Amino acid sequence: MKARAFIGLGGNLGDARQTLEAAIDRLATHPDIALAGRSRFYRSAPWGVVDQPDFVNAAIAVDTLLGPHALLDLLLDTERAFGRVRDGERWGPRTLDLDLLTYGDAIVHDERLELPHPRMAQRAFVLLPLSDIDPAYAIPGQGAVGDLLETLDTRGCEPLS
């Protein structure tokens, strides 16, 4: 069964914009994924660990035949293909970060995956790109992207030309 999933992308090492473009291209060519929408790129200040370069962030919508855990595995494989090493450090610099934000209306809480992404409604660098794709999209259990965005300070998160 096909599902619409939203994926957040980010990176701040190397040519982050080029890496995000290449990651989107790689995902879009997977036989079980069809790219359904994409955002602009945004420059955003680091979150958590602030002593690092600014991030480039984006989001995509995909229609997929993969289940949520299989899609997560594909995202993790894609990160590794672009040099991402998950060493346990949270919020540090990275070549590529791919977050499965939502998967249809699924609510998942297990040792590998939490859907919808637990902190997405508090992060302008997630909601601004999502609003480019579908500002009326209702995040399961949280509300519409556009309404949630109105509650956030978006300073420090700017679209790139």
Automatic annotation (TrEMBL):
Q: Which InterPro entries match?
A: Hppk (IPR000550), Hppk_sf (IPR035907)
The 7,8-dihydro-6-hydroxymethylpterin-pyrophosphokinase domain extends over 90-101
Which GO BP terms apply? folic acid biosynthetic process; tetrahydrofolate biosynthetic process
Q: Name one GO molecular function term.
A: 2-amino-4-hydroxy-6-hydroxymethyldihydropteridine diphosphokinase activity
* EC numbers, comma separated: 2.7.6.3
Name its pathway: Cofactor biosynthesis; tetrahydrofolate biosynthesis; 2-amino-4-hydroxy-6-hydroxymethyl-7,8-dihydropteridine diphosphate from 7,8-dihydroneopterin triphosphate: step 4/4
What's in the keyword line of the UniProt record?
Answer: ATP-binding, Folate biosynthesis, Kinase, Nucleotide-binding, Transferase
Question: Which EC class, in a word?
Answer: transferase
Q: What does this protein do?
A: Catalyzes the transfer of pyrophosphate from adenosine triphosphate (ATP) to 6-hydroxymethyl-7,8-dihydropterin, an enzymatic step in folate biosynthesis pathway.
- Record-linked PANTHER family: 2-AMINO-4-HYDROXY-6-HYDROXYMETHYLDIHYDROPTERIDINE PYROPHOSPHOKINASE (PTHR43071)
What does the sequence similarity comment in the record state about its family?
Belongs to the HPPK family.
Identification of the protein by name = 2-amino-4-hydroxy-6-hydroxymethyldihydropteridine pyrophosphokinase
